[in-house]
Amino acid sequence: MGSFPEALADRYRRFKHRLYVPNADHYEELATYGQSPDTMVISCSDSRCDPEMIFSAMPGELFVLRNVANLVPPYETGGIHHGVSAAIEFAVLNLRIKHMVILGHSGCGGVKAALNQSAAVQTEAKFISQWMSMLDEARLAVLRDHKDESSAAQHTALEFECVKTSIKNLRTFPFVQADEDRGHLSLHGAHFDIKTGTLSVLNHSRGTFYPL
Ligand SMILES: [Zn+2]
Question: Residues lining ligand 1 (ion), CB within 5 A?
């Protein structure tokens, strides 16, 4: 077993000195009274798309879930290991969050694999192709509606559709639907362009994204 990476140890010491110590009172308060974030962000695991950085968040402000391609599966109770559903349930029922943001991004490898169905041809890829099959319907719609466009344009279109698919699936959770109907919870979609730094947000009534 290798030793703990020195580069990470250095980064940790830098964090402790530059960020933890100056905010020690805030950390102590969070440790004593617990967390009460009002926003949950579901984003991609991609290293270039960090929601806490993008939203300039302090500790305790965002409840974050990251996975491949910021996907929320539809509500279902079969099986036993529902990591995404457990996080959503905790955020809505225990933390009583007010906002839920699905954050997609440009150049998403998971979305690209879904578009090309490339994970299925990797003999060792046991999980990605099944996970990305959540986008099957959106993929067919993009290939139909953007059939004369470049593969790059189709990729971007599927990234936007991916965010909308997760929002649609969020609404299949009875407690999400109930809180949204009562006006206690708002669902939001966003897409971060890594190259330009532009954050575009979803206009629900039009189904389109506009830059902030
Ligand atoms: Zn991604």
Answer: 44, 46, 108, 110
